[in-house]
Amino acid sequence: MSTQKDRAPAAAGSGLNDDIGEQKRLDLYRSQVRLREAEQRAFDLFLQNLVKGTSHLSLGQEAIASGFAEAMVKGDLSFCTYRGHAHTLARGVPVEKVLGELMQRDNGLMRGKGGSMHLTSEEHGVMGSYAIIGAHLPIACGAAWRAQYKGDKDVSVCFFGDGTTNIGAFHEALNFAVVWKLPVVFVCENNLYMEYTPIGDVTAVEHPAADRASAYGLERIIIDGNDADVVYRTAQKAFAKARAGEGPSLIEAMTYRHSGHSRADPAKYRPEGELEKWKERDPIKIYRERLKQFGVSDETIDAIHADVMKEVDDATEACKAAPNPPLDILTTDVYADGGWAWRN
Amino acid sequence: MAEITYRDAVARGIAQEMARDPDVVFLGEDVAKAGGVFKATVGLYEQFGPLRVRDTPISEQAILGAAMGAAMTGLKPIAEIMFSDFFAVCFDYIANEFPKSRYMSNGQTKCPLVVRTGNGAGSRFGAQHSQSVENWCMMIPGLKVVAPSTPLDVIGLLAAAVRDPDPVIFLEHKSLYAIKGEVPDGEILDTLGTAKIVRPGKDCTIVALALMVSRALAAAETLKNEHGIDAEVIDVRSLVPLDTRTILASVAKTNRLFTVEENPRLCGWGAEIVSIVADEAFYDLDGPPVRITTPHIPLPAADLLEDIVLPTPERIVDTVRRSLGS
User: Fold this and answer.
1) Do B25 and A135 touch (CB under 8 A)?
2) Which fold, B196-323?
3) Would residue A134 be called left, alpha or beta, if left means φ above 0 and alpha means ψ between -120 and 50 degrees?
4) Cβ of B108 under 8 Å from any chain A Cβ?
5) How much is the mean pLDDT over chain B?
6) Higher-confidence position of A267 and B300
7) A7 falls in which pLDDT band (50, 70, 90)?
8) CA-closest candidate to residue B278, choices B266, B270, B236
9) To bridge B316 with a disulfide, which of A80, A87, B155, B219 should be the other Cys (CB 3.0-4.6 Å)?
10) Which option is the CATH number for B2-183: 3.40.50.970, 3.30.450.20, 3.30.9.10, 1.10.3720.10?
């Protein structure tokens, strides 16, 4: 069994023209900052009672969403979970559309019909956020089957948490994807907790995804999910394999969520000091250091932050001013004819 | 015109649609090389090849999930779930994923697929391989639900289901696979959401589905010949969309309503029809609507026991005759 444990490049500081390059590094940084600020704003709006329903934040996990999204090209498809704000934003969906949906306004991505857990933007390749654990792994297989059948070169990328590895659909999908040699990439974001329970307490193996890989003839891949460069390189490799017709990959990215499972969870079950330890490995902090090692100026970095804050601030104001959804959308789009008629 | 079996009609319907549209693909357990456990898909693998007719593992969630992902992104999959009882192990897709994705995404997500399945009793398979699950499916907004009773309807409704832009549950009755019927040559295409008056009559309306249609027709013959009761029999064919116009018009004419349902009694499809008639045609009725159903029990395996619990022509005759007071 081979183990791939990518680390930050040893050549850090050696110049701007390594395999990733300055422009992509700036994009990776901008993306992570954008996810962070948008979700931080979502949390602030929740405290003001302007974000309704539930919400599950990815604060601290941004490098995975940004690293994969930056490695995708137009046409590649993302399948996300209820913790899907970051993955949706990372594919280029405007902050206003996401905040609008969280605030259940008419300017939201689905005009309030889906909510935080079901963000979908097919024009950006975001093929849905799935709130029934495991459901989207087989669905991603189906999208990959279409690509295989039609000779399309897109890759289906399916993100899920560590808890998902213990549900049947995970195992059905992995076997299915390998047997059919599908161009699908499964990404387990291991943030160490299945909702409120340490994943190790409820899982037979140490690495909930990677330690199952050999059961399906897949490589055991565990990466540092807080280093966007590592994530980006891993994604590129898995996508190349998929596009070459060489089948699926299963990647376990180690990370940590800075907040609780959902907005209702203060995360008091975490041992003292754990959060602080992981905040030292905050992906944005790591990446800012990286940029500076590569000689990127503070002015350039600050300008990225200013741009992002403007988008988030403008989005917030637009959402606050947006009307509620009109009642006439209640009965639209139940069926493909646009309506809800079930009888004549 | 040729006489073919209901099972051959399944293969012919799939073949007709696969030949017409290269986006139609077919997957399920034992459906390709083996031709299906009910031999309803024989010849498709040979005709359309391994890329379009694919055997799967025993992974019902993977089958339906893959069908959905393919449907969302441009194909028109037909998925087979061998026995409808197995819907229970992949019900997330039937209840949560197929029917709600379009609505939740405000119309972005499409899901044009068909789930074919062997439904119903009569094979002495016991409680987990014999159920009639049409009521499980009918209650979910966003699904369409079809259950043909003849070889001709199998082809025409299957074609309509494949071409329909919504997810369609297509319930084939296991006890009908061997029956024969006349079908014309050439393309056959029917319309979802249309009930059919299969026997006109004036004294009462008997509404039935799938295997129960032939039993209702047999009962109607006895009612006419032995009791002078002229029953109109309606094959519902499609539970969603539901052709309530045909049913309401029939009740307006006959003034009495009977439903014959194979599903267990509670929340069976007939309850919805009775409710609609009670709401909208109460003053057309000369007596209470009556439901003839399988009782609210799991299905037994033994032939004697299974035969007793399903509605029979004799039970239909007896119920109608006593209700009409003749």
Assistant:
1) no
2) Rossmann fold (3.40.50)
3) left
4) yes
5) 98
6) B300
7) very low
8) B270
9) B219
10) 3.40.50.970
